[in-house]
Amino acid sequence: MAALSGLRALRRLCSVALFASQLYLLSGRAGSLMTTKHSQPQSTFAKSLTSTSTNSPFFKVAESTEIPSYVTKCPSNGPCSRLPPDCMTCNTNHSCVYGKPATFDCRVKPHVHCLDQNNHEQENFTINMTCQFCWQLAALDYVCTNSTNCMTVSCPRQRYNATCTVRDHIHCLGNRVFPKMLYCNWTGGYKWSTALALSITLGGFGADRFYLGQWREGLGKLFSFGGLGIWTLIDVLLIGVGYVGPADGSLYI
């Protein structure tokens, strides 16, 4: 009887353990289902974010459509040989013989269009020029700044520091903007013909000196009646040869 009761207690204990294990398995499976249900939308949302961020971004970088500033200086569909130097890039050879004709290979810059002799658009072409540096060009091939602070009528003639720029249709070696010492060449608007006419007709009253802005000499001639005519004759000669000029030191027109 004691062995039979022990066997029954052992069976009850096994059934209780089996029930507890099944309950534990059921609880674990339910938790995994809950976690997968909650994590699935998050993973899909994260996946959608990564897909949109890598494949189709919301903000695309705008392509640069700005036109370079040099394009305004370049004539459209004109001869390539007449393009300004700012519109092309050339392989210059500084070892060419000075004063001799030279040929250089050039290429147009982006956004620049030019034509050859047959009206065909081209990018590579050649230009012919004289082998010389820009500061060696003739005075008509560049434009320089003027100075109104130096005296043009002086001995010796005064010079000033000018900044010169080569004209667009001229090709040369070196920098196209360069400094140069020039003689004072500005004018205040006085005419040589008017000064000479006043000296001949009304020089005895100092009209020529007043016209040139020389008030002291004009008053001296006025009150001395042209130095009794002698000063008048001298001024006619001095103005005629250009020795007497405007009081501001400028040149005649």
TrEMBL record:
Cellular-component GO terms for this entry: membrane
Every TM2 domain range: 189-236
Membrane-topology annotation of the record: Multi-pass membrane protein
Entry's localization field: Membrane
Keywords, comma-separated and alphabetical: Glycoprotein, Membrane, Signal, Transmembrane, Transmembrane helix
Key word Glycoprotein present: yes
One Pfam family it belongs to: TM2
Signal peptide from the UniProt entry: 1-28
This protein's record includes keyword Membrane: yes
TM region(s), chain numbering: 190-210, 222-244
Entry's family note: Belongs to the TM2 family.
Protein name: TM2 domain-containing protein 3
Organism per entry: Rostratula benghalensis (greater painted-snipe)
